[in-house]
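Fold Annotation — chain and its backbone

Encoding — discrete vocabulary of local shapes
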Amino acid sequence: MFDLVDEAWLPVRGVAGDLVRRQGGLGSAEGAGLRHLLLDADRFQDLVVDLPTQKPAIYRQLLLPIVVDALGWPTNAAAWMDMFQAGAFTPGQREALSAYLDEHRHLFDLFGAVEPFGQVAGLRTAKGETKGSALLVATAATGNNVPLFSSRTEGDPLELTPAQAARWLLHTQCWDTAAIKTGVVGDPQAKSGKTTGSPVGPLGQLGVVMPVGRTVYETLVLNIPFGRASLSDDLPQWRRRATGGRVEDTLSCATPAWQSRAARGLLDLWTWQSRRIRLFPEETPAGVRVTRVIVAAGDRLVPIPADEPHTAWITDRPVRGKKPGKAAVSPVDRPRRHQPGRAAWRGLEALLAVGSIGEDREATAGRAGFRTSLLLSGLSGTAERMERAYPLQVELTGIAYGNQSAVIEDVLFDEIPLPLTALDPDGIVYGTLLEAVDQAEKLASAVNSLSADLRRAAGSEPIPWDKGQRPGDTLLHALDPVVRRLLAGMRRVGEDFDQSERGLEAWEQKAAHATWKVAGQVFSTAAPGVFTGRRVSKDGKECVFRLSTAERGFRHRLDAILTRRAAQRKNR
């Protein structure tokens, strides 16, 4: 037996920055169980996870649905704001949460014989086969998923403690790779001992956007949307296992059989069982360990619901029919996934798109736009009542999958400070931040153009955009801490235009300094022949590329981008 309610299996960081290791308080020991973590959520700063992608999995698969199922949805923005400003669960809420955990305690036993948490009791293959526990761990070598320079191979047993197994179990339900899964007894769609066509886990199809507060309590509230109706058939997975006839048996996730279906609501979506799993605990000299598992195909989410709260969206605008009377193609929203190697602030336009960009569909036909996450959109309507300088952080997580999504190539994580006032599309901070991000992209393009002109002057071709490292990438890396400092500083600006302008002026000075530093490296590596230059045909015209024209063009582009700095130089 391993009781997730009271066993200390979740490492957490106290508000003072110390790891909490025992349930008795902010001292030295090992972690917190569900009861201790939720009832005292205001005393903990954050979860301590093995991999950044574990955090959204733990919140979605456990913490958020427990809170909502026990307390209900905030009825409107005012109720949500009251809950947020309370800073901690009230005595009545603590009592309701504790009673909920007591009522459903038997459903939170990781190794329960009848209803093991997040698993299918008695799950087995026709031949009684099992696989190593590394199958649950995204960073471990197993099958086709072998990290480069891994210190272990698939043949090395991986002993997981019950706490580790529980965390990776939740992670697998959210992020597992696609393709062929083990065929199990009781799965009518399994053939020849396997099931094909399984997609990646539900979070693997998104670019996860998660607002984070100063404490676990604030993070919980920030991730609960308001104004949602409670649906009788929208239940977390543990309540669908023993529903007493309240929900159709076809929704049960306690059997090997699976189906393709839509989510019944957010509680169903958050606790989606994309895999049928069974852990095999065994006694070892070090205690109970999990070394063998079965991971089989589970429910397939079709489609991704439009009210998925933890992602931003790309909106394809309707295209006018070419023939008179032909209807326009309806717009399609799809999750915006994160790009490897791209800083979170470079996607700020999508994060701040509280209303879809380009509301006038006639004027924007054929263009794509963005829609921010449901949670950030909700915050925009409550920002007036929140502390102006509230230190909101936004964490972006994702996984880049490889060949046929059957392997993990990269785990993506970044976090940025986000001023609440930036969520007002008509506000000063909104325009200020988007202008700074746009300038950073244009400066990178200017440096790349300088490099391309000098390479043509030397008789070579520009660096291809998809090969090698271009100097613009180096510049964006150098600008990264400057942009983050600007984001944090804008929390205190509010709607003060003069402060905003001073912030942009300081940004342009630092951006220019970083740009010239990178440009200097480009100039220093230029070949001697660039002084005299070469004649090159470009776009059907004959152009002369030499050092002087390349530098003149670069200076002109720099002044066109950093207009405040250029104006200051002229006024000296």
